[in-house]
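dude i think i finally got it to work??
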Amino acid sequence: MRAINNQVERTVKRRISFLPVIFLIAGLFILPAWSQAAVIGKGQAKIFNDNDGSARDQALRNALRDAVKQGVGVILDSNTIVKNWTVIQDEVYSSARGFVKEYKVLKDEKVGDTWFIEIEAEVATDQIKDKLGELQILHKKMGNKRLMIIYNPENPEALPADHSAVRSAMTSIPTLFNQSGFRIFDQRSLGYISDKVSQTGSGKEAWMKIADEQQVDILTEFELLSSKKSPFSNATFSAAKITLRMKTYDVSTGRLISNVQSDQKQMTNAKAGSYDWDNALAKASSKSGEAAATDTINNIVEYYKSVGDIGNSYLIIFKDFTENETDIILDILENLEGYQSLSELQTTPNLLKIEYFSTISKSRLRRKIRLAVKPHKINLSSKEISGNRFIFVKQ
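look at this
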């Protein structure tokens, strides 16, 4: 069973390890003259229950996503995009709006039961590269920590979990963490987890126990408070205000890592109906989520600096090993003392090149690798290279 779990975990990590490959190949396909790309993005959405506003919003999101897809095509070739689809989708396409510098609506119309939008957009391709760069930096610093995000309100006046503003925050917050190198616990599983928490207890302690069982490193909880729409206002516009409070904990110690608050507002018509008012709250919530997540990420980085959990980055090359021996070596590396994470930079017959993050020194790491493979009847010799690099060859 442990072998199966290790294999599953390694599969997940391999998906994340595609990222350095993206950087490597992106360097080959970047067009220096393109810091922005002008593209046409098209989006559409079905109209359900005569809710034109919701359909239009979704059509616009789809148009923005389509524009960003074309922007990514300026940086990477199609084969690279297909090969690294999961990473690109999670790290770029899921937050398309953030990579569109500006856009102009060319078509905005309802046809039958479908809303169509077409935009001319300036996609910040340089910003896409910068975001991926930030991801790599934090990946090195913290070993790609696994993080769970929950809506766990303490204030009785907080918005209910099914409010559109909460759903909006639950989109913007994971996006920022994801872009910064954290592995986000599958949000779709939180419904089941919430039921389990309600059966075993309530509050932070129950969630911390669940997070530990799910091998989560960091638990982030937040709540939303909103302003009330005044029915007697004579003003032309009104501000929908959101207060987002976010706390973050180190699951292994229970220590509070970060406690931040973000207050944002979205202007809307003073006589707006309930749908438009909730939509304004959702937009304010999205901005609050982004601001709070940004501050929290900085606090998390500082915390791991203070506790010394930064580690070292090593480039390790293994030559002339069989595929089975390579799998054994990878499993061993992931279970060594001081291990934080690894990324497979190149895997070809007889050659494995990895980027390895560990808290221990180079000399200790080399000795531990040689000792750990011996029970598996794998004999190797090592050759040191300047810096944090070395090569292992089969004897």
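Residues 13-140 form a domain with the Dodecin subunit-like fold (CATH 3.30.1660.40).
im so relieved honestly
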